[in-house]
Amino acid sequence: MPAKGHLRRRLVAMLDAAVGKLAALGLRGLRRFDRKHTADFAGRFLRQIGPCLPEHKVGRTNLQAAYPEKSPAEVEQILRGVWDNLGRFGAEFAHLDRLTIHDPRDPKPCDIEFDHETRVRFETIRDSGKPVLMFAAHLGNWELPALVAHHYGLKVSVLYRRPNLPAVADAVVDMRAGCMGTLVASGTEAPFVLAKSLEEGGVAGMLVDQYDRRGVDVQFFGRPARTSARHSRKRRSQCPLQRARPREASDRAGPLRRTFQ
Fold it and tell me: pTM score > 0.85 for this model?
C-alpha cells in the first residue's frame, strides 16, 4: 500500500508539472498574437462557454444575493459580462509589460487611461515619502493598480497568491517582474515584508475581496464569510488607505480600452 501511494503521488506530481508547463507555454505563446484581437476572441469565447461551467451557478447565486431587485435576465447579462471580462483579462495578462500608460505630456493613444485627479493622487503619494496601503478588488483588469503605481515611481510591494503549479507560478512572476514593483507571495512571512515596506515609506498593495479561511468572520450580503484582516492590521500603523478601481470604457472609434481610478 505505501508503495502504491508513493507511485500515485509521483504520477500526480508529474501530471501537475506537465499541465503547468503547458499552461506556461500557452501564456508565453499568447505574446506572439495581437493582444486586442486575442482579447476580443477570448471575451466572446468565454461568453459562450461560461454559462455551461459550474462557476456560473455560483455567480448567479451570489448576484441574486447582492441584487435581489434584479430580474433573472439582468443577472444573466451581468454574468456574461463577467465571463467576457475574464477572457479579456486572460489575454491581456500575457502582455502586462506591454500595456501603454497615459502620459499627459504625450497625449497619444494608450491602453490605460485615467483623469487628472487620479494622476495628481499618485504623484502626491510618490512625493510625500509616507507609507500608504493601497487596496483593490477583482474588478476589470485587477493588475492595473500595481502597473500604474510602479509607472509613477511609487515604491510598491504587491501581495499575490502564488499559483499551485510551479511552472505557471514562474511564468506569472516573469510576466509581472519589472512592471509592478516588488512581488510578495502570500504566506507566513508576507505580513512582515509588507510591514517593512510601510516602515520604509513604501506602498503596500493587496486585493481584499477573497475568502480567507484564516481570516475574520464578517457578514457579507447577510451571509457569513471570512476575509483577510491584513489591511486592518496595517491600518493600526496610521498609514492612510487608498482604494483603486480599474474599469472598462467602451470606445466606438476603436477597441475596448482600460481605464483607472
Answer: no
Considering the domain 108-260 in this protein, what is its CATH number? 3.40.1010
Query: Which residue matches cell numbers 493613444?
Result: 109
- One digit per residue, the tens of pLDDT, for the chain of length 261 reads 456 666 777 776 777 677 667 777 777 788 888 888 999 999 999 999 999 999 999 999 999 988 999 999 999 999 999 999 999 988 888 888 888 888 777 777 888 887 788 888 888 888 988 898 888 888 888 888 888 888 888 889 988 887 776 777 777 777 777 788 888 888 888 888 888 888 888 999 888 887 777 778 888 777 888 876 665 555 555 678 888 877 664 343 334 445 545
Give 200-239 as a DSSP string.
TT-EEEEE--SEEEEEEEEEETTEEEEE--HHHHHHTTTP
> What is the Cα–Cα distance from 40 to 35, expressed in whole angstroms?
9
Gap between the Cα atoms of 255 and 259, Å rounded? 13
Give me 7's grid cell.
507511485
Please state the domain extents for the chain. Answer: 2-97, 108-260
Would residue 20 be called left, alpha or beta, if left means φ above 0 and alpha means ψ between -120 and 50 degrees? Answer: alpha
